Amino acid sequence: MVEWQEVSNEDLTQIIKNLQYELKEVFKQQGKLTNSDVLKISQELDEYILECQRRNLTNQKGGKL
Fold this sequence. Notes:
This protein is mostly helical. The chain is 72% helix and 0% strand.
């Protein structure tokens, strides 16, 4: 499990970009959305995207969530 407090917003954005690239490459190689590697990367990417959205929502509400 990731310790979100230790991940800066800039690092979070870069991790998301890297995972998106990796997901595209693995899909190109495997050719199936149901491939276990594609699913694993997709699930990890989802976690990072959700954290990014949570942070954005918190910032919009003035730090209260």
